[in-house]
Amino acid sequence: MSYHEIRGNIHMHTTYSDGAGSFDELIRAAAKVGLDFVYVTDHNVLVRDKEEGLRHGVLTLVGQEVDDLNRVPRRNHLLCLGVETDVNAYAADPQALIDAVMAQPQGLTFLAHPIDEISPLFQDRYDWVSWEVTGYTGIELWNYMAHFKSHTTSRPQAVLTGYFPHLFTLGPLPATLALWDNLCRTRPVVALGGTDVHAKRIRVGIFSRIFLPYAHCARALNTHLLLPHPLQKEETSVGQDRAALLAALGAGHCWLGYDLAGDSTGFRFAAYHSGQDEPVAIMGDTLPPANTPLHLRAETPAPAQIRLLRDGQLIAQTHGTRLDHESSQGGVYRIEVWKKRWGKLRGWIFSNPIYVR
Question: How far apart, in whole angstroms, are the C-alpha atoms of residue 123 and residue 66?
Fold first, then answer.
């Protein structure tokens, strides 16, 4: 089966909540770099009826990021995608909130910035703490905006980060990767990347700059999805395109691509039975253990360091555009690709796993 790749930006904010720009500004930035979709998730408000549609050629989808406004500190942020009705009424109870979203026909739930670091300049922490919850779709493996907090250890450092963010971007927090590997031991947990873009102007002394504007984030951390059919991208097909996108995302048929370091379009990770050309599984799929070794293959659009992990442990790596590995063991197999850019090795691609169990 051939798949059609789309890429887009997830977890975005506008003036409907605490973002600095309008929907139109956000969408124009996405269109300029050729994104197929955006998923806007303003805080505790659902404006799907007003803003969702095909705009400037970009499939514009609207969900919400929900948390309890009365909780101090405001932790447990949930990305609610595919929702048709506002779920803010459940914000005080994380499990009830997850259940309310998942009960909707296309509802998906992702724990936003599940681990959140602090720094001397940013002491507020917005991590997930209610780990007794069950039934959520996945986690935000890499929150692009929050990643920079740990680098702002002083005012001069904050200025450097604001002007040259690409020099400080290394990849998802190691603690979040470890958390994800642990969660995947018991069930499939889908990972996505979120820019969490607000495009706010930050002032540090005499310096003033929009930190992570929409145009930057549209080129930076994107989620790439594999669909069985191309998006139709017609005004009359928004509902069908939305359903196809959410089905692929919910199945984990996707990867995170730090596209600022190089376009990750064309990456693939699949499993094959020996001697066969057609894959028996792609990212997100589950396979039962077989009597014969499973052939795992990862292909990248440019040479880089490709790492294959099983249950969070490195089992094979190479430098190039293709990694092949045979295994007879069950486990959770995923790919990380690291690429040297701006003088350092940086996380480029993080696949969802293929589960063998």
Answer: 21
Tell me whether the omega of the peptide bond preceding residue 156 falls within 30 degrees of 0, making it cis: no
pTM: 0.96
Q: Give the tens place of pLDDT for each residue, 68-92.
A: 998 988 999 999 999 999 999 999 9
Of 226, 290, 288, 221, whose CA–CA distance to 256 is shortest? 221
Assign 335 to helix, strand or coil: strand
Query: Quick one: which of 171, 210, 180, 223 has its CA closest to 39?
Result: 223
CA distances from 183 to 22, 81, 136, 141 (A): 36, 21, 11, 12
Pair 110, 138: CB distance under 8 Å:
yes
Contact 49, 57 (CB under 8 A): no
Cα of 58 vs its chain's centroid, Å: 18
Cβ neighbourhood burial of 167 (10 Å; 0-12, 13-18, 19+): middle
List helix spans (H) across 58-194: 94-102, 144-147, 155-163, 174-183
CB atoms within 10 A of CB 241: 22
Cα distances from 8 to residues 12, 86, 194, 212, in angstroms, run: 11, 23, 10, 16
Model pLDDT, residue 295: 97
Tokens, residue 233: 């991208």
Rounded Cα–Cα distance for residues 148 and 195 (Å) = 11
Q: How many CB atoms lie within 10 A of CB 106?
A: 17
Please say whether the beta carbons of 67 and 76 come within 8 A: yes
Q: Are 254 and 226 in contact (CB under 8 A)?
A: yes
